[in-house]
Known about the structure:
By secondary structure, the chain is mostly beta strands. It has one helix at residues 75-85; strands spanning 16-17, 35-38, 44-46, 51-57, 64-65, 88-92, 98-102, 104-109, 116-117, 122-126, 130-131, 136-142, 148-149. Strand 6 and strand 7 (98-102) form a beta hairpin. It is globular, with a radius of gyration of 15 Å.
Amino acid sequence: xxxxxxxxxxxxxxxxxxxxxxxxxxxxxxxxxxxxxxxxxxxxxxxxxxxxxxxxxxxxxxxxxxxxxxxxxxxxxxxxxxxxxxxxxxxxxxxxxxxxxxxxxxxxxxxxxxxxxxxxxxxxxxxxxxxxxxxxxxxxxxxxxxxxxxxxxxxxxxx
Length: 159
Ligand SMILES: [Zn+2]
């Protein structure tokens, strides 16, 4: 899907982290094209496209797990920990295009399920929740089957 903006304010530099190893995004169909934007905690998170909020989770404290802490756990146990601790907002843009924004702070969503949002709206604030080694926003676009799809962002020079 093509978008006109990044999921954070234009004043914030675009810095991308590339997780490697067992948890690399490309290892999973659900996250194949996900992007980790390195952002300070409490950065506003912005909807890249208009749509309807379909999921909000913001009850997790700022607990994070370094992948090294998870040695010996099964992938299922790790996915369970991630699901339990990762705060997020997900938006349905119609036409089978959805986006999700992960690792928000506790009570860090500014939208509710069912709310219509417009491209550029603040939907929450970044935090440090889930499985991660440094604060970042995990952005992912996906289709109605839950498969990750590529996002074409504007060129940074056009920001
Ligand atoms: Zn990620």
